[in-house]
Design goal:
- This is Sugar ABC transporter substrate-binding protein.
- InterPro entries: Bact_solute-bd_prot1 (IPR050490).
- By secondary structure, the protein is of the alpha/beta class.
- It is 44% helix and 10% strand.
- Helix 2 runs parallel beside helix 6, helix 21 crosses helix 22 and helix 24 packs across helix 26.
- The two termini are 28 Å apart.
Length: 546
């Protein structure tokens, strides 16, 4: 899935703000935010509900419905009706949407008695706002039954069950929610790869990276034969420790749980620690640059564009697709290609992760919505095949053509604009951006969905994906002692990981690791494991996993 990663940082509420959010949501039940009685709309003279037909195709309401839609992200494009995608939505549904954007502070003002919007989109599935959705949002299953039962044909049952609250109702629906069926289809591309420049790979005679010994040997060969390159690179270190954290663990197939189904601390897995020791040895050999630990996202991207790294462990190949394409176009025959890379020392197969069932942007219809019938029509429309094609590829005959095999292809002039004038393409078409209910599987409809630079990497990843559903949303509830301990542990682990890779010798590596283990004991780790194990159990029950 393609994410605008800067959102992830801005959506993590500070502890004080989290407490305020919980208080405001609770207060909303007795003030303007959550006390409003849901609007009942009459369908007389509009349409008769038909389970086999989307309500938007039946609705004869003549006047345009004006709706406000709050998106909890300052960067969201608030235009509506000017580009090909939203203009078509406006015409088909006879709606006009006024988008409002903001941050967590603005979001919380709605629950302190402000005027609630008709629709609301947030990103943090663990926030108090989401957990208290029953106080301010309308249940989608009831809206579908009353106004648009076709919604149940286009919404994924597993996703609806996943977002079900304790009252048995579902209030929010996300984009990029991948179910087990989606993974089984083979239409979801891998986003993680170990890559090497093709010219380097050929010059070294197809080198091996599979074992720690081979990895270290090859990195030293690269350092010797290509002194102007950095032998090994990785995503910028930060939240989640870049590609050297979960991504490396997935690459070598570190187990997701203990043998008896409990939470497993993958950071202390011996197989993973063996590879961290290897990276430390490579660092001490001078084949990992100190700059790589200091580079932010922009610094890393500049090196990707210029081909500075001989090899990389990349997590989020679609996000780097443009940078990889820039290097590929300017350097024919030197493009980056995926190879097997590091492998488990104990025989595990890769368990690469992709977007999970929680998705990303979670969309709600509020109790203040002036026309909930029209609002659920929007959900149905955008979740349908028609809406998915529109969001990804635009309008048939205007921006794309359909092929006999069912695939679609951008028209030459549109493709040219996409490649050579990205700003105008975004302004005029907005394809691939207006993705409230977007889904990875619809990218499989066209070879134009991804740049050439990552297609071989995606091909390499086939058969290596494994859902991580059981690990989603298992962190302790915000505001609890366990949550505070988890935050401290995450920060400590990020520092520990970097320190171990940069350790001056094996003794320093071991000492740093021992200090982290002691830190776990001092920060409620055993209680955190209990909480996570219980939430994993609940996840399995939701999904019917035994």
């Amino acid at each position: 899935m393609i994410k605008m990663t800067k959102v992830l940082g801005t959506q993590m509420l500070k502890p004080a703000l989290l407490l305020m959010a919980a208080m405001l949501v609770a207060a909303g039940c007795s003030s303007g935010g959550g006390s409003t009685k849901a609007v009942e709309v009459s369908l007389d003279n509009r349409y008769t509900v038909d389970p086999e037909t989307p309500a938007w195709q039946l609705d004869k309401k003549e006047e345009t419905t004006d709706l406000t839609w709050y998106v909890n992200a300052d960067w969201w494009n608030t235009d509506f009706g000017k580009d090909v995608v939203t203009k078509k939505i406006k015409e088909d549904l006879n709606i006009n949407i006024k988008f409002i954007t903001g941050d967590d502070t603005k979001l919380n003002t709605f629950f302190a008695g402000g005027d609630m919007p008709d629709l609301l989109t947030i990103f943090d599935s663990n926030s108090p706002v989401v957990q208290k959705a029953a106080t301010w949002a309308l249940p989608l299953n009831e809206l579908a039954e009353k106004y648009d039962p076709y919604f149940n044909k286009v919404a994924a049952a597993d996703t609806l069950n996943w977002f079900q609250l304790k009252d048995g109702k579902t209030y929010g629906y996300p984009n990029y929610s991948n179910t087990q069926a989606d993974y089984d289809s083979g239409n979801i591309p891998a986003k993680t790869a170990f890559v090497i420049r093709k010219d380097v790979y050929e010059a070294l005679g197809s080198p091996d990276f599979g074992t720690p010994e081979a990895f270290q040997k090859t990195m030293n060969e690269i350092k010797s034969k290509f002194p102007d390159m950095i032998p090994f690179g990785f995503n910028a270190i930060g939240e989640g420790t870049g590609s050297l954290g979960d991504a490396l663990q997935d690459f070598i197939g570190v187990p997701l749980e203990t043998e008896d189904g409990k939470f497993y601390n993958r950071n202390l897995d011996e197989d993973y620690l063996t590879w961290l020791r290897t990276l430390n040895a490579v660092y001490r050999d001078g084949a990992i640059s100190d700059d790589s630990f200091a580079d932010d996202g922009t610094g890393f991207e500049e090196k990707v564009k210029s081909g500075k790294y001989a090899t990389m462990l990349l997590d989020g190949t679609p996000q780097q697709g443009g940078n990889l394409q820039i290097f590929m176009s300017a350097n024919p025959g030197k493009e980056y290609m995926a190879v097997d890379g590091p492998q488990s020392t104990v025989g595990h197969q890769p368990t690469l992760n992709q977007s999970g069932i929680t998705g990303w942007m979670i969309n709600y219809i509020t109790k203040n919505c002036k026309d909930p019938a029209k609002a659920i029509q929007i959900f149905t429309y955008l979740l349908s095949e028609e809406g998915q094609k529109l969001m990804n590829y635009g309008v048939e005959g205007v921006t794309y053509k359909s092929n006999p095999d069912g695939t679609v292809e951008l028209l030459p002039e549109v493709k040219d604009l996409q490649l050579n004038n990205a700003d105008k393409f975004k302004k005029d078409y907005r394809m691939g951006e207006f993705m409230f209910f977007g889904h990875d599987r619809h990218k499989a409809l066209s070879k134009d969905a991804f740049p050439e630079s990552i297609k071989q990497m995606q091909e390499w990843g086939k058969g290596k994906l494994k859902p991580h559903f059981i690990l989603e949303n298992i962190n302790p509830d915000q505001g609890t002692p366990e949550a505070r301990g988890q935050t401290a542990i995450n920060t400590n682990w990020n520092t520990t990981l970097v320190s171990m890779i940069r350790a001056k010798d094996e003794a320093a590596f071991d000492s740093t690791l021992a200090n982290h283990k002691a830190f776990l004991d001092k920060n409620n780790w055993s209680k955190i494991v209990e909480v996570r194990s219980e939430k994993m159990k609940a996840n399995k029950e939701k999904l019917g996993i035994k």
